[in-house]
């Protein structure tokens, strides 16, 4: 059960949640969310989800190394995305790294922060499909606890400026 949204209550401000993943189009979502934050007087929360690897008992040492490398890669990805948001809107986004099943982690982050008012994703414009998270959300959007905004990965900065 998702907690009540408080983003427009006194002492709160609305935030966009953006997933920074391995796809090329994450930049479009960060750009839109950063522009939205300027206009709404809100903030941006950037989420990186590390999916757990299947591991057997004899490979636990290797799994620990892989987990540390994934954590380091997540920090680097959020550094790039935060730098982009700061360059666009002079904001310092909140950063969250979670490990687990993507949809479960996404919902847990939304449930934990009652100021998150919207999820912003970008869709791949190519023939291979919109991207794994957009495809996954397509099945859950009717029951999703907050609005979902999907930005085309083909939009230029100028096009996003005119929409946000």
TrEMBL record:
Domain UspA: start-end pairs: 15-125
Gene3D superfamilies, per the entry: HUPs (3.40.50.620)
Stored Pfam families: Usp
Protein name per UniProt: Universal stress protein family protein
Organism of provenance: Bradyrhizobium shewense
Lineage: Bacteria, Pseudomonadati, Pseudomonadota, Alphaproteobacteria, Hyphomicrobiales
